């Protein structure tokens, strides 16, 4: 699904965070970090590819890049934190999806085993006993 354009909802607030961090030189706050994790999970659940999402974040960073020379280090640090946190949310959603698939698979196997676990001498309702063939001598 990398051909689809990434909706703006996954980048909401990102340019504002970059502008504040580059102006002050500070690192991201816990709230800012948390605000980027949820969109990562949502993007994974929506089926967007991580590569396309990272590219969208980098493009947004270039568009919002501050024009002061002293802010490059803090801006790049913020970009790194945001992408790392976004990817963390993305990976979390993917792990949950895999766990759900595994649980469904185990449940299916358990149900199949229960359905097939009757005594060999018992016949299933409606079944017909087939006589054994004599062995050639």
Could you list some keywords that capture this structure?
137 residues, 4 helices, mainly alpha
Question: Could you describe the 3D structure shown?
Answer:
The protein has 137 residues and is mostly helical. The protein has one domain (8-115). The chain has helices spanning 14-24, 30-45, 50-63, 72-115. α1 packs antiparallel against α4. The protein is rod-shaped.
Task: Describe how the helices and strands are arranged.
Elements: H1 14-24, H2 30-45, H3 50-63, H4 72-115
What is the gyration radius calculated from CA atoms? 28 Å
List unreliable stretches of 5+ residues.
none
Number of E-state strands: 0
Number of helices: 4
CA-based shape: rod-shaped
| Helix-strand topology string | HHHH
State the distance separating the first and last CA atoms. Answer: 65 Å
**Biggest sheet record:** none
Percent helix, as a range, is 55-70%
Q: What is the number of domains? A: 1
Assign the structural class, choosing from mainly alpha, mainly beta, alpha/beta, alpha+beta, or little secondary structure: mainly alpha
Question: How much of the polypeptide forms β-strand, as a percent range?
Answer: under 5%
Q: Output mean pLDDT.
A: 81
């Amino acid at each position: 699904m990398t051909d689809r354009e990434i909706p703006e909802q996954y980048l909401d607030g990102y340019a504002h965070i970059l502008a504040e961090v580059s102006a002050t030189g500070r690192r991201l706050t816990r709230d800012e970090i948390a605000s980027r994790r949820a969109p990562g999970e949502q993007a994974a659940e929506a089926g967007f590819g991580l590569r396309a999402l990272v590219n969208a974040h980098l493009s947004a960073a270039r568009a919002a890049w501050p024009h002061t020379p002293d802010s490059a280090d803090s801006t790049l640090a913020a970009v790194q934190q945001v992408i790392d946190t976004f990817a963390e949310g993305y990976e979390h959603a993917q792990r949950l999806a895999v766990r759900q698939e595994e649980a469904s698979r185990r449940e299916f196997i358990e149900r199949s085993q229960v359905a097939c676990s009757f005594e060999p001498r018992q016949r299933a309702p409606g079944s017909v006993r087939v006589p054994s063939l004599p062995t050639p001598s």
